[in-house]
Amino acid sequence: MSSLFLYAVVTLAAIWLIDKWRKRLAFYEKLRWVNKVPGLPLIGNALEFKDPTKSLTRMQEVLLENDGLCYVELLYRPMILISNYNFVEWLLSSNTLIEKSLDYKFLHNWLEDGILISTGATWKNGRKILSPAFHFSVLEEIVTKFDKPTLILIELLEKEVGKDSVNIYSYIKNYALDVICESSMGIEVEAQKNSQSTYVKSVDSMCNIVVDRAFNPLKTKDWLYMLTPSYYKEKAYVRYLHSMSDKVIKSKKSSRQNGIKEDKDDDTGRKKKNAFLDLLLTYKDQNGEPLSEKFIREQVDTIMFAGHDTTSMGLCFAIHCLSKNREEQEKAFKEIKEISEGKDKFTYADLQEMRYLELIIKETLRLYPTVPFYSRNTSQDFIFQENKVIPKDVTLLTCAYAINRDPKVFKEPEKFIPTRFLDTDVKPFSYLPFSAGPRNCIGQKFAMLEMKATLAKLLLNFEILPSIPEHNVILSAEAVLKSKNGFCVRLKKRII
Ligand code: HEM
């Protein structure tokens, strides 16, 4: 009896394995048109892309060798790396290929159905509701929310003047958190003055947990992750962060119900547009129904996450580039000085006028795209260029870092040359720090304004010099592009 049972089990297992193998062969057959980067049995190419300080250069290398399109496998996970212009255009313009890949699921406990990770009708609806919050009339008002955090940043950095080296990373990170809290929720967390606050620490820890899960194979599977201490820590952080967002939403809601209006007219008689959260609270659908508290919380948390680590890294890399390129710094300073003559605050229009500074930011994001790659999952078989099939459940990874450094598009791609953007030949899918198409960055104008306002104030107050000894960043491709050894510069008070 027992040998009969064993025989049945072995037969079933063999059938299952043969079926799996047959499906795998059919899968490879469909993908024959893509060059495969040779890997090791079972682990595939995992070792080549494991180290975040080396993965970007390796990606760039294999993409150059394979005309911008190649197949890799990371521990059985099928993935196509992409920098090929036609493929990128096809992928990012698609209205159906919009499902985010597995890596984003680690954000789900925190952001739930927020627009960064949701898909289908939920994403479409969220994106439609959120888009007006990034309209220029709202951004005009949001610009004023940068003033207070910027003043604190200058005050703190003044204490570092004259030192051989200051690592600006934590200063800028806390600053960006202050800006996003003030502009998205209308609350002051004072991260710059109180970096030990539970809120600041929870946001920071959640960002670290998400990255750790994406890169640590022991934590990618939910059932294994649940056996680790991180799981319980994450639960506590999420509970706290959700309770904070709920508290702010409830309190804003009750002020509105009690008739405490926060939308005051400005001195030109126009209606002031309030913080992002206030806009969501005033929204009514076509039946006159307000948004649910859950929906509002998910979107507010999403903006908090997507809108602070990205800009803080953009700013850190820009400061690093300015320290290394003094001539460019002086050109930007001259422009800012002229625009700021007789003013102590910048308006939206002033920031729009800072064209040279904009070139500097664009060139920074070309060399150091803060989101160095982004990925989609094929929810079904897709066909590229008539007969090229991409089977279901393949990760399509667009490598912005490789695209932005393509020597066929950008002459001397490793050099910092801001004026290259005056050349109108840069085609839309050749430069992609904010992605493109329907799932592009909803906050890109906000990010540009924040980076301009901050850099302009910094340049009016300081000369940014290379640190002593001179510092070179070690790039690390995490959820955002970071520097493993920080961002060290030297600050000199600017005498105007
Ligand atoms: C230098 C700053 C920034 C960079 C480089 C950047 C880059 C990007 C990129 C590449 C994507 C697409 C990601 C993907 O496809 O997975 C994205 C999406 C997004 N970004 Fe940004 N971002 C920045 C700042 C911001 C800011 C300031 C906000 C909000 C205030 C924001 C909100 C979002 C949101 C909500 C999405 C998801 C959009 C959707 O899927 O519909 N980002 N960002």
Q: Give the low-confidence spans.
A: 263-271
The unique ligands bound to this protein are: protoporphyrin IX containing FE
Number of strands: 12
> Overall pLDDT, averaged?
91
Q: What is the number of helices? A: 20
Q: What report would you give on this structure?
A:
Helix 7 packs antiparallel against helix 8. The chain has a five-stranded mixed beta sheet. Helix content is 50%, strand content 10%. The chain has a single domain (25-493), classed as Cytochrome p450 (Orthogonal Bundle), CATH 1.10.630. Mean pLDDT is 91; it is low at 263-271. It contains 20 helices and twelve strands. It has helices at residues 2-30, 55-65, 85-93, 108-111, 120-130, 136-142, 147-158, 169-184, 198-215, 217-220, 222-225, 229-257, 276-282, 293-306, 309-324, 326-340, 348-353, 355-367, 400-404, 444-461, and strands spanning 35-36, 69-74, 77-82, 166-167, 373-377, 382-384, 388-390, 395-399, 462-466, 475-477, 481-483, 488-493. With 496 residues, it is α+β, with helices and mostly antiparallel strands. The protein binds protoporphyrin IX containing FE. The site of protoporphyrin IX containing FE has 23 residues, from helix 14, helix 15 and helix 20. Pfam families: p450. One of its GO terms (molecular function) is heme binding.
